[in-house]
Amino acid sequence: MKKTWTLLLLLTSAACEKSLDLAPLSNLTNATYYQSAADALAVVNSCYAHLNSAYGAADGYVFPDLVTTDDAVPFLTGGPDRPLLWRYNITSFNVYVNLYSTSYAGINRCNTVIDRLPGIAMDEALKKRYVAEARFIRALHYFNLVRLYGDVPLVTRETTSLEGLNVSRAPADDVYALIEADLKEAETTLPRTYPAADAGRATQGAAKALLAKVYLTRAGTTKGSPFWAQAAAKCKEVIDLGVYDLWPNYADAFSLAAKGGRESVFEVQYLTDVRGNPFGTHYGVRSVPLYPGPGSGAARVSPSLFNAFSANDRRRSVTFQTSYTLNGVTVNLSATDPDPTRAVSFQKLWDRTARTNAGGLSFPIIRYADVLLMQAEALNETGNGPSADAYAALNRVRTRAGLTPAANLDYATFREAVWQERRLEFAFEAQRRFDLLRTGRLLDAVKAENSFNRNATIQPFHALLPLPQAEMDANPNLKQNPGY
Known about the structure:
Elements: H1 3-12, H2 30-33, H3 37-56, H4 62-67, E1 72-74, H5 81-86, H6 100-116, H7 124-149, E2 152-153, E3 169-170, H8 172-189, H9 204-219, H10 226-240, E4 264-268, H11 279-282, E5 299-301, H12 303-308, H13 315-319, E6 320-321, E7 323-326, E8 329-332, E9 345-346, E10 363-367, H14 368-382, H15 388-400, H16 411-425, H17 432-438, H18 442-448, H19 469-474
Antiparallel strand pairs: 1-5, 2-3, 4-10, 6-9, 7-8
Helix pairs in contact: 3-6, 3-7, 6-7, 7-8, 8-9, 9-10, 10-14, 14-15, 14-16
């Protein structure tokens, strides 16, 4: 791990979004800071704040998910790393593979909470909850890392100096063991709900839902894996909490009013024009001034994704911008026109109230629709065909979208139906690559989406991204993934 970010962490791990009455910065040290309940809250809040860097950055998890799959085409005449990633001419120097240091920065903040809070004199129940929140966020970071890179260094203590940074990669099974342990601790400690002022914090349901996704991922393509039953059981536990539900309209799930609402199991929250996300401008129609400034058009919708939506699917108009009117002139957009100023764009997370490029719509990490579709998939696997509960879960998502309920499907066709539903339901939510990987379909999906002369040179080893070269240079104990 890079020594450069470690020193930064020592200064930022105590950051908080609210002003606190602390000692002067010149006197602020690890010895004087971690003393009070207010200090504890500040460092826990810093764990949440760092999720903005991972998910809300213009090219955080969203861009690589879009262009390394079959869902999007990058702006082809921009920075060279974008089309190289899309065509799978990927090297360890590509800037878009470096989700590594961002994740470890977040992990260090969580480790600080886990290490430091036990020594603070404060309400014990609240202390336990704060530590459980940090364990949940740490599990989320490690889950992303192990899915992106495979074996990764397992760091479970706070980094306080430049000593001991050259950590070797741990086997993926060991990483998953930590993820599972963290989430099991979190699900037994975290509350079902919070007061409105704390909406958005990790809950018992969030821990259970993320654990279900971990089990689904570990089941992979193994028919009869015990992880299928574990995933189904965790989904049922989330459902049985009675906390979550679908909004009647798909668009409601992404509105400003829905922040922390009934469908949100866990999300990254933003503040419009204060601490926002750039998804509106960054993915808006290129060069067209519909946003706070012209759209960047960083990635356009692929023809295969656009055409996967039927005409009566209500999600299509929410997910995509297919036309716009400017100065009284209406322009229709296309998924195939090579002109980037005429390209269908993603609009699902565009906050139209924003006056800057900082939108306040939340980024959904787990929605209730995800829990339903995970349950449907897992039940189909455990029953070697869909049960009534599996159909009910799938069809709740389909009927909200305006589609006819699925019926009379066998094991294979039901599985395909769930996979297709996941693509449509979660477009632009950084789920596609992970879904294709765990179901063994990434290579075929990428090869099938060959619009705009993609000609991707994808090979089996591309299931994992390369470790960033800067990390390899800084840590001689790291070994690169095969093929890079």
